[in-house]
Write the structure tokens for this entry.
Amino acid sequence: MPIELGNLCRQLRLAHVVDYVSSQQNEQIRSIVEQILIAELDGRRRAKLGKLVQQAGFPHIKTFEGYVYDHISFPSGSSPELLQELDWLERKENLLLMGAVGTGKTHMATALGVEACRRGKAVQFYRASDLVSVLQEKFTAGTLSRFREKLKKVDLLILDEVGYVPFSQTGSELLFNVIADCYEQQSVIVTSNLEFGQWTSVFGDTKLTSALVDRLVHHAHILSFTGESFRFKQAMDRIPL
């Protein structure tokens, strides 16, 4: 019996189809069954992708089609191609996307998250301030432990816009605990418009900030985004001369 049909049956967990097709000894039956199973597998994959993307909570769906990398400084040994292969995700490494507002950090983070969903990975996207608000609500309601357990099940946590809104002491501590949970267990993508030395203005406590940055930077790829805001440039381009 061809390997193709056997592989399809294993992926679909169909234990007896191969035996039945073998017993028929009919090439046309084999071909029809194979086509049906391929269609079923493709349908399941599309449904799973749609579910993963929906659960991730992306504000917008982004891809790398037409994405420009000229303004991005990659660390040694990294490149756009290697980034999109997601080997860093398999190794539970982090990505830190640092740079000015409007330079494509959120676009890249989202596109990588969507690609991870395509690979069957569980992703969760949050603006950092939104996640802190949720954590505080869960803490007040007494359901924080359950929520943290849910976050532990994702393969990739995306924290967007760290640095735009300062957090309270409680909020900072709650977010630190989430990042500590992820350390060497899950990958985290962080986008920020602030250099690490300025993060104390967001998290308040120097020691907490230092411990948080230490966990994020260890096993991390740090990308620097430079240049002017794409959104500002597009807005200026629309102004008639």
